[in-house]
């Protein structure tokens, strides 16, 4: 069985970066992993703080996708590691989510994001599903403690 997630409203919605499961990273509290991830795209501290304190993950994502501010030069090289760091912290912080993730066993996890061919599977399933792969890597890492 393959586990698909996208909306925060379904059984595995907590796997979404938009789920309201905050994390503490870099000495700051982030409302969602989406807030953290989007803020890391930028070197400008004021803009990162604007993203960190934005009211919703949707707004954080919109600010992160804006190109009015320059992206950090190494973004393409570091983005996967940053996503892994945030997702791992989320599942380490919230024991109920850790239990849910570990309960998926060795099932494939796919972000069913029709418009995202990098983090999700895309509209036709040909996407890289990097978020799903990171979730499966985090599941392996967390499973080592059991």
How do the strands and helices of this protein lay out in sequence?
Blueprint: E1 2-5, E2 23-25, E3 28-30, H1 33-39, H2 45-52, H3 57-65, H4 75-93, H5 95-102, E4 108-111, H6 130-143
Parallel strand pairs: 1-4
Antiparallel strand pairs: 2-3
Helix pairs in contact: 1-2, 1-3, 4-5, 4-6
Describe the fold and architecture.
- By secondary structure, this protein is mainly α.
- The model has no long low-confidence stretch (mean pLDDT 97).
- It is globular.
- β2 and β3 form a beta hairpin.
- The protein has one domain: Tetracycline Repressor, domain 2 (Orthogonal Bundle).
- 45% of the residues lie in helices and 10% in strands.
- The strands form two sheets. A two-stranded parallel ribbon has the order 1-4. The chain has a two-stranded antiparallel sheet with strand order 2-3.
- It is built from six helices and four strands; from the N terminus they run βββαααααβα.
Number of strands: 4
Q: Helix- and strand-based class?
A: mainly alpha
Q: Quaternary arrangement of the chains shown?
A: single chain
- Name the CATH superfamily classification: YbiA-like
Task: Please outline the major beta sheet.
Answer: 2 strands, parallel
Named CATH architecture: Orthogonal Bundle
3D shape: globular
End-to-end separation in angstroms reads 23 Å
Using the coordinates shown, work out and report the CATH topology.
Answer: Tetracycline Repressor, domain 2
Which strand order do you get reading across the main beta sheet?
A: 1-4
Low-pLDDT runs = none
Strand content: 5-15%
Q: Please give the count of helices.
A: 6
Rg, please?
A: 15 Å
- Round the mean pLDDT to the nearest integer and report it: 97
How many domain units? 1
What's the helical proportion of residues? 40-55%
CATH first level: Mainly Alpha
Strand-and-helix sequence, N→C? EEEHHHHHEH
């Amino acid at each position: 069985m393959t586990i698909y997630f996208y909306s925060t409203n379904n059984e595995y919605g907590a796997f979404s970066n938009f789920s309201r499961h905050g994390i503490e990273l870099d000495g700051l509290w982030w409302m969602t992993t989406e807030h953290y991830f989007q803020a890391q795209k930028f070197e400008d501290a004021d803009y990162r703080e604007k993203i960190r304190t934005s009211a919703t993950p949707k707004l954080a994502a919109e600010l992160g996708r804006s190109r009015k501010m320059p992206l950090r030069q190494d973004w393409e090289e570091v983005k996967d590691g940053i996503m892994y760091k945030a997702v791992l912290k989320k599942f380490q912080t919230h024991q109920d989510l850790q239990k849910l993730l570990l309960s998926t066993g060795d099932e494939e996890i796919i972000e069913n994001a029709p418009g995202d061919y990098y983090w999700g599977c895309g509209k036709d399933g040909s996407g890289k599903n990097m978020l799903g792969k990171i979730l499966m890597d985090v599941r392996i890492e967390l499973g080592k403690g059991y």
